[in-house]
Design brief:
mainly alpha; rod-shaped
Length: 105
Amino acid sequence: MENVSLWQKLKRDFDSGLEKIQWFSSLFHERLTSEISLFKYLNTINELEKKKEVLYATIGRKVFELISRRTVDVYSQADVRKAIKEIKSLNAQIDTIKKDAEALQ
């Protein structure tokens, strides 16, 4: 009789340990998924920031060109207006991504 109860106790302890491991792995999986998503958001934000820097440089070059030609009306230039629109669009995308990332935390 004692062997049966020892066996039952061993099985119960094993099942209890297995439940704890499953709970921990589930928790770990959720947290890891959340962290990976957050890193993806941050990477996307960095890529958009790089695009903005390129646009800023484009605007700066165009303004410098216009100044050297003594042209003062910078906003009438299509390249400058297009770059400014793209920067505004990128800023909106970055804000949306930041809100999504904050929701994960």
